[in-house]
Amino acid sequence: MKLHRIHSLQRKLSENGIDAAIILQHRDLFYYSGTAQPCNLIVPQKGAPLLLVRRGESFVREETWIEPYEMGGSPKQMARKLGELGISHGTLGVEFDTVPYGLIQRMAAAFPAFTLADVSPLIMEQRAVKDPDEIQLLREACARFDLMHEAAQRSIRAGMTELELSAVLADVQIRNQVEQRVFIRRWDDWLQPTGAIASGENLHRISGHAHTVTGVGLSTALPWGASDREICENDLIVVDSPINYKGYHADNARTYVAGRATPRRRDTYRDLMEVQSAALGAIRAGIPVQEVFEIGMEKVRNLGFADFFQGFGDSQGQYLGHGIGLEVDEPPVIDPRTSTPILKDMVLAVESKFIIPDFGAVFIEDTVHVTEGGYEILTRSSRDLAETG
Amino acid sequence: MKLHRIHSLQRKLSENGIDAAIILQHRDLFYYSGTAQPCNLIVPQKGAPLLLVRRGESFVREETWIEPYEMGGSPKQMARKLGELGISHGTLGVEFDTVPYGLIQRMAAAFPAFTLADVSPLIMEQRAVKDPDEIQLLREACARFDLMHEAAQRSIRAGMTELELSAVLADVQIRNQVEQRVFIRRWDDWLQPTGAIASGENLHRISGHAHTVTGVGLSTALPWGASDREICENDLIVVDSPINYKGYHADNARTYVAGRATPRRRDTYRDLMEVQSAALGAIRAGIPVQEVFEIGMEKVRNLGFADFFQGFGDSQGQYLGHGIGLEVDEPPVIDPRTSTPILKDMVLAVESKFIIPDFGAVFIEDTVHVTEGGYEILTRSSRDLAETG
User: Fold this and answer.
1) If we measure between CA atoms, which residue out of B154, B172, B152, B166 comes closest to residue B197?
2) C-alpha angle B49-B184-B269 in degrees, rounded to nearest 5
3) Which helix or strand (DSSP H or E) is residue A296 part of?
4) Helix, strand, or coil here: A108?
5) Are B204 and B168 spatial neighbours (Cβ–Cβ below 8 Å)?
């Protein structure tokens, strides 16, 4: 029973002059209704919500905390239902960032007396602060990354391909109930379940889908993730994996050497960890998000890595992490523009990497729970540069 | 060099009175430009297309056959570029079915002198007929399903869970370069890479995302695919897997018994294969799609399975297959409403299943290439009911 989520949304609707919201996107539906079956959810500013079930009713009946629910979900039926709730005109909130144009166009035609407003920012603002249940699931997701990290340490050796490493890690994921589907809110982005696995020169070949170590993938159709490159003796290897466990994503990264680390690599990794520690050390409830970014960047500049932090040249990104939960790319983005405060019970993926042509990359990412006075790292495994083989 | 794809689209734009199209969706972009990096593609009704590269230029340079390309891609820049091509007003084609409302709204604001039209139906009509290269990739994708089928026959035994079977099949997929990301055009649908794996009573528990054997998954957050149910002696098991190989998806299903098949199961499977053979036998270039459906359904009725074909009760579907390629759910849908003809070099996933409460399900799906006078099944493995253990 998580009806308090509906009540919080209703307060936000009221504050923003939105008369009702119609939730269509599957992760938002799951958050507010408890089911990921094909449904539409009508949330009036006041009063009881109504779940319209398009299919899968035998599942919905067991899963949802929304009462009542009815079968259906056409735009016409939704307009009629809203009328029955006494809402015949005004402002209607829908999710502009994810719902296709064609569908919202059909909705607009069925709701001629309504102005449409984007309700996604309100939803994502609400979802940014996690319930205790959500934090527990994120902790369990992180425990599964720990298992992957152990397996990577045990398995990496010169001669294996990035793809073979991916197979080892996928096996650990699947046998530990990690979903092999990662949810990203951005409509034209995707991640494979084992994430970005890259080694050697692939560490500084940055595909366009994000400003990070991307790997180059197997073909032009999906230019991201593990490739069939063979890992060589003394290569650096990065594993940056999302973990979808019961719908909640952890996002962590570790760096490995296929062999013993050279002094330069040790020193570079130590400098990287200084940046990461500075950023993490700045986290506490109340601090503006952009300050965490600035504190991390100050350390980057002091250490002389400004040209290689989060990429280089065209591919360099201006961020230090992001919120995480039902989707991998949740607000807040830890960047210089985000002036809102960090809040207690946010869960953040804080990530630092140096990507250096002709060197490769070192990368650490931690999923952390924001507490009143600081943060807690949700993984338990070592965060050191891992020597293997 | 596949510029002929652009020329075909231009003919369709001309026939439909669309002055230019702006392609934003990643699979369409890959089809027309050869790159899946973040780009936008401007296709005027006449003359040279222009690719705008948002990121990943070092990849795009090696991949695309579109010349020229430029950096950028904001709605404003696109409007300016279209003006430079001499197109300052008229009808602008965009993809209504996949591009989010917010993005097309920003586009509309930048193109005030244009009326927007949905270009997706024209694109999907074109993509339905495959090039020889595409058919070859679909054949290679099907060869990878054959490897999965072999592994399933070798591995299935009472006592293993659906999830353990999924792990075995994922390992075969990954080591044979099957992408662990399946592309579906429908904005709110998804499939895990090993697809629907279901056994025993899970065969007739139908989740709402499609009218098929869905499996029940691991949690309410992703109610589809393998669960942690343990396979019992003499259970029926279905594996229905999409295979994304270099961007092209095969879609095939097989049915297994954990042990020896009873006479009822043999008979039911034999009847199912009669339906599948009837449907396949109807396929040839020129026949209306709906006739294939009707011929299959006539056989279903004659055999007395009308209440259990493609599900039962509320969950019963009216279809016999679908096109397949860069996405799993391509047109044409083989259903009673599709009156367009089947065309040479379409690739279709033809699927028959009986789902019977208290019995389970039997399921066969074949990916077939439509030839002038018939069809070719692209898998080579046995399509019999497979006894295992």
Assistant:
1) B166
2) 135
3) helix A289-303
4) helix
5) no
pLDDT at A68: 86
Residue B301, min C-alpha distance to chain A (Å): 25
Under 8 Å between Cβ of B318 and B310: yes
> Helix or strand or coil: residue B59?
helix
Q: Chain B contacts of A96, Cβ < 8 Å?
A: 100-102, 105
Which helix H or strand E contains B91, and what residues bound it? strand B90-94
Strand partners, B364: B352
Write down the residue that tokens 């208290």 correspond to. Answer: B358
Q: Rounded to whole angstroms, how far apart are CA atoms A37 and A30? A: 8
Three-class SS of residue A330? strand
Q: Say whether pLDDT at B344 is over 80.
A: yes
CB A196 within 8 A of CB A247: no
Residue contact A221–B30, C-beta within 8 A: yes
Strands (E) in A8-137, as ranges, are: 20-23, 39-44, 50-53, 69-71, 90-94, 114-118
Tell me the C-alpha distance between A132 and A122, whole Å: 20
| Cα–Cα dist B190/A156, whole Å | 32
Select from A124, A146, A96 the least CA-distant residue to A322: A124
Residue among A145, A153, A236 nearest A195 (CA): A145
Q: Extract the runs of DSSP E, i.e. beta strands, from A202-315.
A: 236-245, 248-258
Our CA-based measurement puts residue B300 at a distance from the nearest CA of chain A, in whole angstroms, of 24
**DSSP 8-state secondary structure symbol assigned to residue A335:** S
By Cβ distance, the residue of A34, A55, A218 closest to B220 is A34
H helix or E strand, kind and range, residue B51: strand B50-53
Nearest to A56 among B175, B194, B207 (CB): B207
Mean pLDDT, rounded, for A46-70: 96
* Phi-psi category of residue A91: left, alpha or beta, with phi > 0 → left and psi -120 to 50 → alpha: beta
Question: What ranges make up the beta strands (E) of chain A?
Answer: 20-23, 39-44, 50-53, 69-71, 90-94, 114-118, 196-199, 236-245, 248-258, 321-323, 330-333, 347-356, 360-370, 375-377, 386-388
Written as one letter, the residue type at B28 is D
In the predicted model, what is the mean pLDDT of residues A121-131? 98
Confidence bin at A210 (pLDDT 50/70/90): confident
Type of residue found at B295: I
> Does an H or E element contain B134, and which?
helix B132-155
One-letter identity of residue B323: G
In this predicted model, what pLDDT tens digit does every residue of A324-369 receive, in sequence order?
Answer: 999 999 999 999 999 999 999 999 999 999 999 989 999 999 999 9
For B207, the closest chain A residue by CA position comes to A56
pLDDT band at B43 (very low <50, low <70, confident <90, very high): very high
Tell me the C-alpha to C-alpha distance, in Å, between residue A140 and each of A23, A133, B153.
28, 11, 34
Closest CA to B229 of B73, B360, B138: B360
Angle at B181 between CA B178 and CA B183, to 5 degrees: 110
CA A353-A210-A120 angle, to 5 degrees, is 115
B306 secondary structure, DSSP code: T
Helix (H) or strand (E) holding B62: helix B57-63
Buried b (16+ CB within 10 A) or exposed e, B159-179: ebbbbbbbbbbbbbbbebbbb
DSSP classification of residue A318:
-
User: Residue A156, Cα to own-chain centre: how many angstroms?
Assistant: 26
- Give whole-number Cα distances, A47 to A73, A82, A85, in Å: 19, 12, 9
Q: Which residue among B54, B208, B218 sits closest to A177, beta carbon to beta carbon?
A: B218
Helix, strand or coil, per DSSP, at residue A313: helix
Are the C-beta atoms of B383 and B272 separated by less than 8 Å? no
With beta carbons less than 8 A apart as the criterion, state whether A362 and A374 touch.
no
Q: Which helix (H) or strand (E) holds B93?
A: strand B90-94
